[in-house]
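Researcher: Please translate sequence to structure tokens.
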Amino acid sequence: MINNNKDITYQTTYSNQIYLNSEFADIRMNSTMNSNVAFFFTSPLKIEKNAIEMRLSVVNCQIPVSWYQINSSNNKINITIYSNPVITTSYYLTPGNYNSNSFIAQWAIDVGTYFTISFNKNTNCYQFSNLISSFSFSDDINSLFPVIGLLKGTVYGSSTISNNFIMKCLYPVNFGGLTKLHINSNTFTMHNLDSHNKSTNRTIACIPINAMQNSIIFYNNITNYHNIFKSWIISSIDISIVDINKNYIDFQNQNWAITLQIDIVSEVIENLDNLQDVYNTHQEL
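Model: Translation complete:
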């Protein structure tokens, strides 16, 4: 656009990249879990007032799949034994990576051998049995239920079959682990929606888990997705990495790397006479 003063107004985009590595975090809010950290910069990024729009994106990241499939967020089960007296005990399965068979072996260690677990390969379902007493399973926080094929928030009781107390799980076991990670930050105000809390959240990127255990996720933003934000000075950045239930990931002292990009759309005003001078100088060269 050109006005009567021979000024031309146009828009341009400036880009800055921020390279983050958890190894160099200034604060680790959850210690060696490495999933809630903060970085402080001695040279803040200052955004000029002529900026029209600020865009944030995760360009790429490299994240180790070092967390355990069963961990402190999903390893608890309450078992009630209907003997005399009735006893309810909370058990915590040892964190680790399991399949349908290794889980049965670990259950015998952590819960006890008075339970027998059988696995139906056709339905992928467990059956729990106890020869001594009737029993029930219940849960609260950090529920093991989704792993062994039970519905969270439900109490399941055994039935009696041939003097044996049996409880069949209704759903297949799930040893697939996590499906995606949320990279969150309080530094930037976002307007994304999440079905978990039915409201806006602070997620700047959702990363699919497409790597096996003990390997590395290599994520690239092939869709060029970015978030719109409003912050004029960026002197620190906090990053948290959580699962779909907002539990912090335990990277077990392994480090990740994330590249952020800030694109700043700015309005520029140039005088045509000045531009002509620049053009003439260029021609002389």
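Researcher: Any highlights?
Model: The mean pLDDT is 88.
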